[in-house]
Q: What sequence folds into this?
């Protein structure tokens, strides 16, 4: 579940890209530590299979790039 000020990320957390006015939601589906020692996340676009992104966890935690999406009810 995404928190208002996350310090960590978990599978199923939801995020919005900061510069995307459409409000599309990206969901964390996998977490791992890359060979360089940095944690990374695989995200899938909610509602559309096949569209994925891979990025560092630090990018997801940086409000200039992403922000937590509201919890799904």
A:
């Amino acid at each position: 579940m995404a928190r208002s000020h996350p310090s960590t990320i978990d599978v199923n957390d939801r995020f919005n890209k900061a510069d995307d006015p459409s409000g599309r939601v990206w969901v964390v589906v996998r977490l791992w530590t890359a060979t360089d020692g940095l944690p990374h996340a695989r995200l899938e676009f909610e509602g559309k299979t096949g569209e994925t992104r891979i990025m560092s966890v630090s990018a997801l935690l940086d409000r200039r790039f992403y922000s937590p999406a509201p919890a799904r009810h």
About this structure: The chain has one domain: 14-68. The beta strands are 14-17, 25-33, 39-45, 52-56, 66-68. The two ends are 11 Å apart (CA to CA). The longest strand covers residues 25-33.
